[in-house]
Amino acid sequence: MSGGDTGTSSTGGLLAARASANDKRKAFRAALASDRIARLPGAFNPLTARLIQEIGFEGVYVSGAVVAADLALPDIGLTTLTEVATRAQQIARVTDLPTLVDADTGFGEPMSAARTVTVLEDAGLAGLHLEDQVNPKRCGHLDGKAVVPTDEAVRRLRAAVAARRDEDFVICARTDAAGIEGIDAAVERAKAYADAGADLIFTEALYTTADFERFRAAVDVPLLANMTEFGKSDLIDADTLESIGYDAVIFPVTTLRLAMFAAEEGLREIAAQGTQKELLYRMQHRSRLYELLQYERYNDFDSGIFNFDLSRNQ
């Protein structure tokens, strides 16, 4: 026997992803260096991440707003590093895709941002993004945001870069300055953040395709676009963003919004009718859920271990 084969069914991709954390980080960096845009839908739980992989996306995103909403909290900086890291680790564990996580402002001062990097590296993430909002932050598509001075944001990023142990771990810098100080100011911040060691720049709440084109023309580093619903940005398709020259795009809250809409509609139907029988056609079938959960592989693995005959040992 070779390759660690013990004669039992393989657990590769079953209990955890086949790919190592470093493999995923290298894959993310390769995607950012390619001429194709990396699409990262948000996963609100691990099973969604598995579905994202099965459908054929290039990565998974963990939104801070979604982690907060899952805890019935608004996205105003109330979640902790522990809460975000725990959920992000659960999601990254089950997929071979690279997982990028929203680390807000780094959960404190520059030293806290440095610790955040080490915790999320240990959690198996492929990268994180840190923003330049005042701490505590608020949702990037709401009015009333405030950003810290550029030099303070640079210190935050330099601390994060200095704490990185795996050089393939991606540190993305998010700036919320476009809607506060204007696009030109956001461009200058992006350049300063790249000089501080950021591998990827995320400019929040640009409005139109022309805004995205303007930013791309002015900044010579990999760029990430945020296509969130009901916000300030036009919903631009991935092919268009790719043609402009963007390297990655996130759809941060889409899956949660779809799921919550369906859950609310279903619960209202049950409240009104006293049964869910008219909703069956809108549900994922038990057999499809079992397929995603890989029930048959678990059964094969279990049988491969517990296949001894006690009578032979008497």
UniProtKB/TrEMBL annotation:
Q: Does the keyword Cytoplasm apply?
A: no
EC class, as a word, reads: lyase
Q: Where are the transmembrane segments?
A: none
Q: In which pathway does it act?
A: Organic acid metabolism; propanoate degradation
Question: Which terms are listed as keywords in the entry?
Answer: Lyase, Magnesium, Metal-binding
Q: Which Gene Ontology terms describe the biological processes this protein takes part in?
A: propionate catabolic process, 2-methylcitrate cycle
What EC identifiers does the entry list?
4.1.3.30
Give the catalytic activity.
3-hydroxybutane-1,2,3-tricarboxylate = pyruvate + succinate; (2S,3R)-3-hydroxybutane-1,2,3-tricarboxylate = pyruvate + succinate
Record carries keyword Lyase: yes
Gene Ontology MF annotations: metal ion binding; methylisocitrate lyase activity
Query: Which cofactor is essential here?
Result: Mg(2+)
Question: PROSITE patterns per the record?
Answer: ISOCITRATE_LYASE
Function text: Catalyzes the thermodynamically favored C-C bond cleavage of (2R,3S)-2-methylisocitrate to yield pyruvate and succinate. Involved in the methylcitric acid cycle. Catalyzes the cleavage of 2-methylisocitrate to yield pyruvate and succinate.
* PANTHER family given in the database record: CARBOXYVINYL-CARBOXYPHOSPHONATE PHOSPHORYLMUTASE, CHLOROPLASTIC, PHOSPHOENOLPYRUVATE CARBOXYLASE
Q: Which family does it belong to?
A: Belongs to the isocitrate lyase/PEP mutase superfamily. Methylisocitrate lyase family.
Name the NCBIfam families on file.
prpB
Q: What protein am I looking at?
A: Methylisocitrate lyase
